[in-house]
Amino acid sequence: MNRHFIGSGKIALLIIGIFFSLVLAEIASQIVFSKFDTKMQRIKSLPNHYYQASDNAYLTYELRPVFYMKKKGKIIQINKYGIRSSDNEIGNSEKIGLLGDSVTFGINLSQNQTISSLLQNKIGSTAKVLNFGVPGYSLEEIYHNLVIKNKIYDVDEIIYLMNLNDFAKRDTVYEGADASLYRMYRTPLFKSPWLNNTLNKKERP
Description:
Blueprint: H1 2-44, E1 51-53, E2 61-63, E3 67-71, E4 74-78, E5 94-99, H2 102-105, H3 115-123, E6 127-131, H4 139-153, E7 157-160, H5 179-185, H6 191-203
Parallel strand pairs: 5-6, 5-7
Antiparallel strand pairs: 1-2, 3-4
């Protein structure tokens, strides 16, 4: 009986120890995340930040409409419909939508260097090429973004430029192509899983 009581006491102490360890880990993660969040909020306030929160729960964030920036000779322009384009015309010609993430969007590239612009120059005026790429989107976001943009443009064909990290899943250790951008707009309730995911990413080759 006494042995049973002692054994139960050890288990209770072990459970209490684990609980307080988890609490301490969460407190530490909250502190780390607050520093990260302060930095991200500062980035969001910069005039060259071309993202905004999305009303669509699946997307979380989206490109900021009516955006123009010229920096070091590179131009980034987003039209009023929230795609990387220099014009707002929908037109009646055949329309081709390019799907993808930062590769399709053309991050670090000027407007005329993007895949959509190069393809447009190649095919001429026979069809309108639309850049539906958004940095950091994975397959789920790419799909929901297409649904939204297709209601505007009613595309005839789509071309998906696959990137291996498109198969990432939010809120896991494989959280998206750009988890920092995602976490600017969706703060995790518990910060320790987020910190664990971040550390695991740094350790992966």
